[in-house]
Design a protein that fits this description.
Distance between the termini: 72 Å
Radius of gyration: 26 Å
Helix content: 10-25%
Shape: globular
Strand content: 25-35%
Largest sheet: 4 strands, mixed
Order of helices and strands: HEEEEEEEEEEH
Number of strands: 10
Length: 185
């Protein structure tokens, strides 16, 4: 019977020729051997940080980051402030993040799973034949239009333009439509 290199435990690889009643203990031994090998190799399951779209969270890390690598920056964005990492959910999906120190050594690695906004999101589908079009609303307590990936294009474009106009007015970038003084830069 072969031995596991890391643990010295016996690996039951002959279980294929055994009957059903014999297979269960042999499989358990093989699985244990595999887990001991992985644990001894320094491999670990990635931790997952879950965040909602357009929300942020703070994570404290050990060490001073030199570089941050994001698998898909369209899903999540990272800002480093000292020994803290601010994670911002951009759009739904899952990506990975690797944080390296000044010498290029890994400080941290984790997955970021960005989900749709909370319990207040309501999706309305219109159309009796495929493809139906979707309109998203945030209902807390009144329902208001919400910009979400996957909504009907004209609806999304209209909301996006309204949001841009609001931001310009609020930050003083569009002085022609506001009597408010420009925001300090």
């Amino acid at each position: 019977m072969p031995e596991c290199r890391r643990s010295g435990a016996k690996c039951a690889l002959e279980f294929i020729d055994l009957g059903f009643t014999e297979m269960r203990p042999a499989f358990k031994t093989l699985a244990t051997c595999f887990l001991l090998s992985v644990a001894g190799s320094g491999l670990a399951l990635a931790e997952t940080k879950t965040i909602e779209v357009d929300q942020s969270m703070i994570m404290k890390i050990k060490g001073e980051p030199g570089a941050v690598v994001i698998g898909n920056p369209m899903i999540a964005d990272i800002t480093v402030v000292g020994d803290k990492v601010l994670i911002h959910g951009r759009t739904f999906g899952t990506t990975n993040v690797i944080i390296l120190d000044q010498d290029g050594e890994k400080i941290s690695a984790f997955d970021v799973s960005v989900k749709h906004t909370g319990d207040n999101l309501v999706a309305v589908f219109v159309g009796s034949t495929a493809p139906a079009v979707r309109f998203s609303y945030n209902c807390a307590p009144l329902c208001e239009s919400e910009l979400q990936v996957g909504d009907e294009k004209v609806y999304n474009d209209t909301i996006a333009q309204q949001i841009k106009t609001k931001i310009k007015l609020a930050t003083g970038q569009d002085d022609s439509k506001s009597d408010a003084p420009a925001a300090p830069q």
